[in-house]
Amino acid sequence: MKLLFEKEVKGSNRFRFPEPEVSADAAPEMIPAEHLRTADLGIPELSEVEAVRHFTALSKRAFGVDDGPYPLGSCTMKYTPKICEAAALLPGFADIHPYQSPWTVQGALKLLYELQRDLAQLTGMDAFTLQPAAGAHGELCGMMIVRAYHKSTGADAQRNVVLVPDSAHGTNPATAAAVGYQVREVKSGPDGLVDLEDLKSKLGGDVAGLMLTNPNTVGLFEKNIEEISRLVHEAGGLLYYDGANLNAIVGVARPGDMGFDVCHVNLHKTFATPHGGGGPGAGGVGVKDFLAPFLPKPVIEWNEEEDVYTLNRDLPESIGKIKTFYGNFGVCVKAYAYIRLNGFAGLRAVAQHAVLNANYLKKRLSARYEIPFDVICKHEFVATNARQAKNGVRTLDIAKRLIDFGYHPPTIYFPLIVNEAMMFEPTETESKERLDEIAAAMNTIADEAETDPGKVKGAPYTTVIGRVDETRAARHPVLKYVSE
Amino acid sequence: MNIPQELFYSKEHEWVRFEGNKAYIGISDYAQHHLGDIVFVELPEIGAEFAPMTEAAVVESVKAVSPVFCPVAGKVVEVNEALLDTPEKVNEAPYESFLFAVETDGAGKENLLSAEAYAPLCPEEEETL
Fold first, then answer.
1. Does A480 fall in a domain?
2. Quick check: ipTM above 0.85?
């Protein structure tokens, strides 16, 4: 497919900008010479219809939840009810500007305030911020709060290590390092859970905290969480909850009750605002009372007597600002609509169906695929290619072949503690019929791996671009368009 | 699986070749095989000092990013810069492709494995992967 630049036809763009109110001739007097553009902008010239066709063609090559099942593990690619989109497009939400006076956007502030309150209730936390723009950004915010706390007690200089399990999302160690901590890995036991003995051996006076996902990345609930919490707190550390897998327990169990001090919530996962492709997310962070003074500012406050919402910037212990203005507001509107749409009882059903769907699909796949931790799982599970490997079929091949059946592949080669992992998260929005279809497709691939492994290894066949040379792309990347 | 007799090995699949007070360090055949196609290596700075089994380098494959530990205490005196442009050498000839060399007093050597002791850590049945 040609790029816009290659489709250019000089003179085909008949759009004309209105005359500027300030004469362009005056620019050199008003703007220093080094900031003035001298070369052409290089925007390609196309007619409107050709530009529309270009982007329509691109959109047809994309695959999203609106096209079909997307069981990408640890990503919670659930379907988003369109009414949430409609809510975010209401003019009172869509047409406001962050520079407006708080007095003129009371409805928007009320929505953010109530969303914070709902999330605090759902996670068992006391205070919330909605500023972080994504899950990893929420982690950064949360761990900055952990560090600010240790600074406030004078323990920061000695507590310079953050513990992270070997099954963790890669963002956890990256976050700890970004905040200035050394990362110490905690091993998983043969049951896929945090090894308590290993945890004990890694705890000490130098530990600032433990970052933990529950359920973890193999889809198992850390059943020893209360013991883990006791051990970490006795050693003087804080407990950070990575909310990436909250969809498994929302409305059923609360991180705050498990002993976590800080958590982030991926609104774009659990609370169904569409994501993927780098689109906007929201990674709100909740804390227990003793950490509330460190939340990023401004904080939205409600004067109950006058029923007025204000922005408080007078927070001397705050970690400061973490995002321009107040976060990705549109994503928050969709999450708020989703919570109101389901109610808390409905959210509990979300978690129950997510868990049921994952267990159903796991059972269906276990007939033909190796399941390393074959116990009742939460919202996702890990399978491997161990039975297909003897024919030279790798996890990558199975994932690529699944594309030909019209499904997005599962997450592959993660978590790292499982060799050749395939991690499925069907989510609650897939029907039993759809799960049966996915299982049937996976069974067909298992058959092919026996009878015609070459077919699986050459997949996909139905896409515009077939099997790409990922190794060459990674070794010799071409990262920008070069004109002929 | 190729496990040369004359080398020492760590439980994390590094190999070590001692030359006087210098130790050359790379990753084993088993390690490169399991990582898959290696696309990038990050080498330590000359002069950097490491305690035994601390993270000294990084290898990135199409599957994962993995740390490479420095199995013995030492100060980096040499790095294999050729690998920055040709990381595939680690796959093609793992034992000829050292990542870095340290000047060492030998601390940590006592925990290294001989070829015989290392072999059981490389189970054969996974070789078809």
1. no
2. no
| β strands within A181-230, DSSP E | 182-186, 207-213
Asked whether residue A258 falls in the same domain as residue A281, the answer is: yes
Among A341, A368, A401, residue at a domain's last position: A341
Kindly state whether A385 is in contact with chain B, defined as any CB-CB distance less than 8 angstroms: yes
Give the nearest partner residue to B128 out of A390, A413, A475, using CB atoms: A390
By CA distance, what is A394's nearest residue in B? B129
Q: Which of A389, A390, A413 sits opposite B63 (nearest CB)?
A: A413
Q: Identify residue A130 by its one-letter amino acid code.
A: L
Backbone angles phi, psi at B27, to 5 degrees: -110, 150
Q: How far apart are CA A316 and CA A311, in angstroms?
A: 14
Residue-number span of the structural domain to which A32 is assigned: 4-59
Q: List, as ranges, residues 311-340 from A with C-beta within 8 Å of B.
A: none
B24 SS3 class: strand
Rounded distance, CA A298 to CA A200, Å?
39
Task: For residue range B4-46, list pLDDT tens digits in order.
Answer: 999 999 999 999 999 999 999 999 999 999 898 999 999 999 9
Helix (H) or strand (E) holding A355: helix A329-366
Task: Assign A460 to helix, strand or coil.
Answer: coil
Cα A221 to the chain's mean position, in Å?
Answer: 19
Query: Is A311 found in the same domain as A360?
Result: no
Provide CB contacts within 8 A for A466, sequence distance 6+.
Answer: A458, A459, A460
Which CATH number fits the domain that encloses residue A385? Answer: 3.90.1150.10
pTM tops 0.90, yes or no: no
Q: How far is A328 from chain B (nearest CA, A)?
A: 31
**Cα distance between residue B97 and residue B80, in whole Å:** 8
* All domains of chain B in start order, with CATH: 8-105 (2.40.50.100)
Tell me: pLDDT of B128 over 50.
Answer: no
- How confident is the model over A71-128, as pLDDT tens digits? 999 999 999 899 999 999 999 999 999 999 999 999 999 999 999 999 999 999 999 9
Cross-chain residue pair A475–B39, CB shorter than 8 Å: yes
Contact check, Cβ <8 Å, A470/B62 = yes
On whether the CB atoms of residues A68 and A408 are closer than 8 A, the answer is: yes
Q: Do A38 and A89 belong together in one domain? A: no
Question: In B, which residues are within 8 Å of A372 by CB distance?
Answer: none
Do residue A312 and residue A428 come from a single domain? no
